[in-house]
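Hi team,

As requested, here is the filled-out complex form for the 2-oxo-2H-pyran-4,6-dicarboxylic acid run. I kept the field names the same as last time so the parser does not choke. Let me know if anything looks off before we queue the next batch.

— J.
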Amino acid sequence: MSGKPTTGPFEKTKGWLDWYNGPSKPGFKLPPGAVDAHCHVFGPGAQFPYAPERKYTPCDAGKDQLFALRDHLGFARNVIVQATCHGADNSALVDACLASNGKARGVATVRRSVSDEELQRLHAAGVRGVRFNFVKRLVDFTPKDELMEIAGRIAKLGWHVVIYFEAVDLPELWDFFTALPTTVVVDHMGRPDVSKPVDGPEFALFLKFMREHKNVWSKVSCPERLSVTGPRALQGEPGLESGAYKDVVPFARRIVEEFPDRVLWGTDWPHPNLKDHMPDDGLLVDFIPQIARTAELQRKLLVENPMRLYWAD
Ligand SMILES: O=C(O)c1cc(C(=O)O)oc(=O)c1
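And here is what came back:
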């Protein structure tokens, strides 16, 4: 990996943790054609300014650094998800997709005012979905009728909707989510509270959501974000052997084993808003065989599912 995080003309949010630029080589050998199906680009801010309405200002994390990480870890492709710090200006995302030689597809953020021409331009760049965010610390509220209107328009392009929310908010969002007319992909397992039992009512509701709605998929990503007690995956520390993020394993494993054809995995590089540590992305890859325990489950999670959703054409 080359390149160090820079900050450009913007001042980072106080306490911001930069991505770790010395990731280890994973011990786990990814299957050929593996896709990192959730990652972001931030700026660089000098070229792609952060949005005025953003809730945080990150360090830069540009496409060259993302592609270097992809190659270092052994992924073949990326799905780049529009980060909230760029609002609905998808320029950095589009630039990265276009520069990737077909190795990156995107999930954009759009407003009701987006034109059909702009949607076509995004499609041509490789965008295949839009992201609706309900995490209050990240975005201002968007009315549900606006989101439903957008969903109806992008459905015609064959795109899907990615949703990000906290587990406690699922009951209130249920009717909206289950009325969406597209495939629906949940970010980071709907952020379960992993200090609660995997068999408890909160996670049961999430499993019911997926069980009763066959159009719902889940990213089994972000153990570093969800873990409460598990040891961290830090360079120089025994990651896999000591069971890094082990409190997250039962949740992710449950989803992978019940819904093997509707799961995706991603690094979440450059890991926005982590508060107490920055993971080694190589060790995050080493987390995968704990949650997808057979070669077949790994192939579905890392190759077949993301290819079906993002590279169907
Ligand atoms: O939990 C987060 O802070 C977070 C933020 C963003 C974003 O700002 O887009 O994306 C993620 O996947 C996760």
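Two things worth flagging: Residues 35-310 form a domain with the TIM Barrel fold (CATH 3.20.20.140). The chain has one domain: 35-310.

Thanks,
J.
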